Amino acid sequence: MSMGVDVCITYERSFYFNLPEVQSALHANHTRLPYEWSMCSNLLNYSGIDANMDMLPILKRIVQNKIPVWIFSGDQDSVIPLTSSRTLVQEIAKDLNLKTTVPYRAWFHKDQVGGWVTEYENLLTFATVRGAAHMVAYAQPSRALHMFRRFVRGQRLPNKPHSSTDN
Ligand SMILES: *[C@@H]1O[C@H](CO)[C@@H](O)[C@H](O)[C@H]1NC(C)=O
Ligand SMILES: *[C@@H]1O[C@H](CO)[C@@H](O)[C@H](O)[C@H]1NC(C)=O
After folding, report:
1. Which CATH class is domain 56-152?
2. Whole-angstrom Cα distance, residue 119 to residue 63?
């Protein structure tokens, strides 16, 4: 029995990403590939060992090159709990001697707490999304979109319920 869990999501995903209007909106498949989109097509020769590669050195290099990085986690993610991601982000900040510019505090969206956030030197941000599971955008679409919008606009997550750019 499913308790609010969509057990058909793997099928819906294939259907959705193969819709021409979705591909067009994502600027994907411009070359009109002669096969359908699928989750793991085996076209790329991935090695299972690669999944265990340490990504921290790469993230550090990105931050060292002054490219803003946001790492986020649903606070109900039982696959990768937020505590582990938060610890790793703290480690990066410590290794790179980044000062905390925003101490761990709540961020807001639509008059509610959207999650919690920490920021290091306007470069490295760790944010949680309240009520989100492993697939944040699926579990909390409005909060996820708000967070993404703030990221692409280079704006900090709001620290109070009412914000002029809160839309
Ligand atoms: C790419 O687009 C074509 C239609 O132009 C479609 O037939 C094909 O399934 C698509 N392939 C992928 C990988 O999205
Ligand atoms: C994929 O990679 C493995 C290991 O590097 C190699 O042995 C194999 O031949 C590759 N397969 C293809 C289809 O390229």
Report:
1. alpha beta
2. 12
